[in-house]
Amino acid sequence: VNHQALATLVREATALPPREPATRAYLVTRAAALGLPPHVLTDLQRLWTPQGWRPPSALQDDAASALYWTTWPQ
Amino acid sequence: VTTGIPALAGAIYAERALLQETPLQDALHTLLLKALSGPKSLLGGAAEPQWARLPLLACASASDRGADAAVPLAVAIELQATAYRLLDDLEDGDSSTFDQWPCSAVICNVATTLLALAQRALLRVPAVIAAILADGWVGVCEGQHRDLTLDLDDSDPLGTALQAAEGKTAAIVAATMEAGALVGGADIALAVRYRRFGHAIGLAGQFANDLVGLAPDQGGATDISRGQYTLPILFALVSAAPALRVCLDTARARGPISPTLHGQALAELAATGAHRYVWLLLEGARRDANTALAEIALCRPVRGTLDRLLVPSAFPAVVTT
Predict the structure, then answer these.
(1) A63 part of contact set with chain B, CB < 8 Å
(2) Rounded (5°) CA angle B43-B49-B55
(3) Which position among B34, B110, B155, B230 has the lowest Cβ density within 10 Å, counted as fewest Cβ atoms?
(4) What pLDDT does residue B267 have?
(5) In this model, does residue B320 exceed pLDDT 60?
(6) What's the gap in Å between the CA of B317 and the closest CA on chain A?
(7) Whose CA is closest to B167, among B147, B142, B145, B148?
């Protein structure tokens, strides 16, 4: 995945209301235009909830569970 | 030892034996034991030792005869990873490490001794496999160099940080998995699949680490207050984020940061979507790891060995109506 294209998509998605059909339609078009594979948008929508975006703490908790196996110092 | 990690007891025994058979001054021996007895270590009694288990699990998956053949590798990696961690803390000026040791020179000397001991452990590993491991550590050093010299005025600091992530954890985990598979009897084509798997879980670990680093630790510190240029922080710096910039500049100059400013910086970062960006990278790496795992599973069993290294996300797919 091109990291700059991904960054562009995330920035644009962040500025839009999640879960709106119009948002989804726009992001589908943008993801394709940016050359991103379809799973990127599918994954991004997994961060949508009825209350809006999943909070940062939820993403951090999910990452912490992935850290079951390792942490290399930064 | 009651654990699911194959040959773990053998690895603990081998590491103890290596320390005992090496003539060492008592005081230095004590410090080595201290360094090697951390919470995720072999000698610390971890059921899932962070580094040593990687070659053991790869070997157990690749071999029909368990993981005994990977014990010298596991010991060497444990010693090397401990040394690199100490050196990394020195390079980063990590005060939590300094507080535990008499002085920085002693930390450096303990790390050097650990690397020398790892050379002894590697005498029991075929040269070609030791070379794979050495190349993995060179990759770590390259990643660390990119990280240490990262310049915000670069044309693409985010790209540089991603290259650093590829080098750091991914390089050594890839090498470790490949080496473990080879000592277990895998041919080169199969070992490459283990390498891909290791690379993906290494990257996932680095991305996860960057996300977790945004959560305040017990002392309230985050990667922002530590002045780290991690991926989410670099992502957020592209946007107007004045409090974040001030926090980072102050932290890197070792100045005090008020809790209020730190909170503003965290809020600015969250508003840019930086968490989401890095989570998407993490999920992509997990997807790559799953693909590599499926390719290995075509030839060798992975259940109970490699599959325990992958923890899937808890976030379900969105149902759109």
Answers:
(1) yes
(2) 110
(3) B155
(4) 96
(5) no
(6) 5
(7) B142
Quick one: which of B291, B247, A18, B287 has its CA closest to B279? B287
Structure tokens at B49: 């030792």
Q: For chain A, percent helix, then strand, then coil, each to nearest 5?
A: 60, 5, 35
Identify whether the C-beta of residue B15 lies closer than 8 Å to the C-beta of residue B8: no
Grade residue B318 by pLDDT with cuts at 50, 70 and 90.
Answer: low
Contact A73 B230 (CB under 8 A): no
Coil, strand or helix at A52: strand
Q: Which residues of A touch B314 (CB under 8 A)?
A: 62, 65
**How confident is the model at residue A69, as a pLDDT?**
54
Q: Is the dihedral of CA B259, A47, A8, A15 positive or negative?
A: negative
Q: Is B269 exposed, middle or buried (0-12, 13-18, 19+ CB in 10 A)?
A: buried
The ipTM estimated for the assembled molecules is 0.93
Give the minimum alpha-carbon distance from A32 to chain B in angstroms, rounded to a whole number.
16
pLDDT tens digits, one per residue of B83-134: 999 999 898 877 777 788 889 999 999 999 999 999 999 999 999 999 999 9
CB B55 within 8 A of CB B176: yes
Whether residue B205 and residue A39 make contact (CB cut-off 8 A), yes or no, is no
Q: What is the DSSP string of B58-120?
A: HHHHH-SSTTGGGHHHHHHHHHHHHHHHHHHHHHHT-HHHHTTSS-HHHHHHHHHHHHHHHHH
Residues present in chain B in total: 321
Residue B210, chain A, CB below 8 Å: the answer is yes
Is B318 in contact with A63 (Cβ distance < 8 A)? no
Per-residue b/e over A23-40, b at no fewer than 16 CB within 10 Å?
A: bbeebeebbeebebeeeb
Cβ(B173)–Cβ(B198) under 8 Å? yes
Check residue A68 and give its pLDDT: 58
Nearest CA in chain B to A48: B318
B174 vs B299: CA distance, rounded Å = 19
DSSP structure class, residue B308: G
